[in-house]
C-alpha cells in the first residue's frame, strides 16, 4: 500500500514538473546575464563584501549599508562553495524558484479543484514581474518563497515551520520585515473568520511563533544603530532622500503610482475580472473566497500603508506577493464560473493580457519598470556590445556620462576584474552620453537636448531595448564609424 504522502507526491508530479522545468530552463537561459537594477547592490556588492571578508564582519561599508545581511551572505556562501561567477549566482536562485513552485502548488491544491491545478499555476506564473524577477539574482524571489511558506504554515497550522520562515524574513530585506506584520494580521483575520471571536488570550497564543523573529529583528536594528548611528538610509548616502516623508501632493502621486503598478503589464485584466466575478457571486459567495481575499488584501494594505508616506520610488517588484495572490484569487473565481464557454474565454483573455505585459513599452519620457518584465533581457548583450565599441575606438569611459543601472563597474555587474565605470551624466561636462531607454533617470529636458543638439555616434538595438551613444557637437574627435 502506498503511503498517503507518497501518493500525494506522485499526484503532484505531473502538475509541478512542467513549472520546475520552466524554472530550470529560464535560469539556464539567463545564466550569463549580469546583475541588474537593485541586485547590483543587494546581491553583487553585498555578496562580494562578505565573500572577500570571509564573513569576518556583520556590517558592510557605510556607503552601501542599510539592508539586512541574509541575502548577501547567502550569495557569498554559494560563491565559496561553487565558485564566484554570474552563472553560479543565477543557479543559487533555483532552489527558491523550485520552492515557489511547490508552495504555490500547495496553495492551489487547497483552493482549486484537481482539474484546475495546472491552469491555475500557469495563470500565476504568467505574471510578467514574477518571470522577470525569476530571471534575476533577486532577494524578492526569496521573499516570495518565504511568504508563501508562511501562508501554507498558517493554513496547515504548522507553527514551527511558521516561526522558522519568519526568522529568515526578519533578516532578508526591509520589505520582508514589513511583511512580518502582514503575516500576523493575516493569521488574526483568518482566525476571526473561522471562529468569529478574537480574545486576548488567543492573540497572545498566536503571537508565539513571532517572538524569535521579533527578537532577532530588534537585535539586528539595535546593532545596526549602534554601529552606524542610523537605521534605513545613511544620511550622507545618495538614497537618503528616499527616507523623507512626502508632501500632500507626493502622497497623492504615490497612490497613483501604487495603482499603476498594480494594474501595469496586463494585470488590469485580472483585477477587472476578479472584481466582476466577485460582484456576480455576491448572492452565492464561494466558500473559500473570503480567505483568499484576506490573503490578498492584507499584504496589499500593509505594504501600501507604509510605502505611500515616503519618497522612496514604488517599484513593481514590491507587490510580487500581491500579484501571485491576485492570480490565485482570480483562478479560484474562474473555476467557480458555471458557464464553461465563458470560463475558457476569460482564461484566454487573462493569459493573453499577461503575456502582452512584456511588450508594454512606454514613451521615453515615462519611466518603466524594466526589472519587472522580460523585455529587459536584451540589455545585457547590448551593453557589452557598446562597451566593446568604446574600447575599440579608445573612448575614455570617464568622458562618457550615463545613468543607473549603468553606473556600476563590470566588476560589480559581471564579476570581472574591470573596475572602470561610467560617471553620472552631466551634459555640461561630458563629451559623450550613453543613453538607453532602460534608464529612467534622464529628465525631459535632457532627452530633448540630446535629441536636438547632440550627435548620435553609435546605436545598438535588440527587441524593445536600445543603447545610444551621443557626442557633443562641439567635441573634436577623429572617431570613425
Automatic annotation (TrEMBL):
Compartment list: Cell membrane
> InterPro entries, alphabetically?
LipidA_mod_glycosyltrf_83
For membrane topology, the record states:
Multi-pass membrane protein
Q: Where are the transmembrane segments?
A: 12-30, 88-108, 115-131, 137-155, 162-190, 265-281, 293-311, 317-334
User: Which key words are in the record?
Assistant: Cell membrane, Glycosyltransferase, Membrane, Transferase, Transmembrane, Transmembrane helix
Q: What is this protein called?
A: Glycosyltransferase RgtA/B/C/D-like domain-containing protein
| Origin organism lineage | Bacteria, Pseudomonadati, Bacteroidota, Cytophagia, Cytophagales
Amino acid at each position: 500500500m502506498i503511503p498517503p504522502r507518497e501518493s500525494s507526491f506522485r499526484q503532484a508530479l505531473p502538475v509541478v514538473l512542467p513549472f520546475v522545468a520552466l524554472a530550470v530552463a529560464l535560469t539556464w537561459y539567463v545564466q550569463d546575464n549580469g546583475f541588474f537594477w537593485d541586485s547590483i547592490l543587494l546581491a553583487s556588492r553585498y555578496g562580494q563584501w562578505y565573500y572577500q571578508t570571509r564573513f569576518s564582519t556583520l556590517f558592510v561599508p557605510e556607503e552601501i549599508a542599510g539592508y539586512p545581511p541574509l541575502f548577501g551572505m547567502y550569495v557569498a556562501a554559494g560563491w565559496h562553495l561553487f565558485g564566484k561567477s554570474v552563472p553560479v549566482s543565477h543557479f543559487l536562485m533555483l532552489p527558491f524558484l523550485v520552492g515557489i513552485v511547490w508552495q504555490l502548488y500547495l496553495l492551489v491544491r487547497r483552493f482549486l479543484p484537481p482539474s484546475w491545478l495546472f491552469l491555475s499555476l500557469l495563470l500565476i506564473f504568467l505574471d510578467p514581474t514574477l518571470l522577470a524577477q525569476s530571471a534575476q539574482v533577486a532577494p524578492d524571489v526569496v521573499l516570495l518563497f518565504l511568504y508563501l511558506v508562511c501562508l501554507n504554515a498558517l493554513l496547515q497550522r504548522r507553527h514551527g515551520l511558521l516561526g522558522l520562515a519568519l526568522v529568515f524574513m526578519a533578516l532578508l530585506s526591509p520589505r520582508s520585515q514589513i511583511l512580518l506584520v502582514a503575516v500576523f494580521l493575516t493569521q488574526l483575520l483568518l482566525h476571526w473568520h473561522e471562529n468569529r471571536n478574537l480574545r486576548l488570550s488567543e492573540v497572545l497564543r498566536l503571537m508565539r511563533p513571532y517572538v524569535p523573529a521579533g527578537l532577532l529583528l530588534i537585535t539586528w536594528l539595535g546593532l545596526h544603530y549602534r554601529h552606524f548611528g542610523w537605521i534605513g538610509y545613511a544620511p550622507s548616502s545618495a538614497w537618503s532622500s528616499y527616507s523623507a516623508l512626502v508632501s500632500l501632493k507626493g502622497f497623492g502621486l504615490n497612490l497613483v503610482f501604487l495603482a499603476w503598478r498594480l494594474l501595469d503589464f496586463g494585470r488590469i485584466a485580472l483585477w477587472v475580472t476578479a472584481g466582476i466575478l466577485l460582484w456576480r457571486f455576491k448572492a452565492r459567495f464561494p466558500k473559500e473566497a473570503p480567505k483568499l481575499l484576506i490573503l490578498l488584501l492584507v499584504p496589499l494594505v500593509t505594504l501600501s500603508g507604509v510605502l505611500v508616506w515616503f519618497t522612496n520610488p514604488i517599484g513593481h517588484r514590491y507587490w510580487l506577493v500581491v500579484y501571485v495572490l491576485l492570480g490565485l484569487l482570480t483562478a479560484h473565481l474562474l473555476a467557480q464560473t458555471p458557464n464553461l464557454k465563458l470560463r475558457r474565454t476569460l482564461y484566454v483573455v487573462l493569459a493573453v493580457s499577461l503575456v502582452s505585459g512584456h511588450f508594454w513599452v512606454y514613451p521615453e519620457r515615462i519611466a518603466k519598470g524594466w526589472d519587472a518584465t522580460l523585455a529587459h533581457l536584451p540589455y545585457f548583450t547590448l551593453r557589452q556590445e557598446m562597451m566593446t565599441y568604446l574600447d575599440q575606438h579608445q573612448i575614455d569611459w570617464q568622458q562618457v556620462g550615463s545613468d543607473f543601472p549603468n553606473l556600476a563597474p563590470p566588476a560589480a555587474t559581471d564579476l570581472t576584474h574591470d573596475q572602470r565605470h561610467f560617471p553620472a551624466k552631466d551634459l555640461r561636462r561630458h563629451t559623450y552620453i550613453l543613453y538607453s531607454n532602460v534608464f529612467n533617470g534622464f529628465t525631459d529636458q535632457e532627452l530633448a537636448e540630446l535629441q536636438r543638439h547632440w550627435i548620435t555616434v553609435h546605436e545598438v538595438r535588440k527587441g524593445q531595448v536600445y543603447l545610444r551613444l551621443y557626442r557633443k557637437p562641439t567635441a573634436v574627435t577623429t572617431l570613425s564609424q
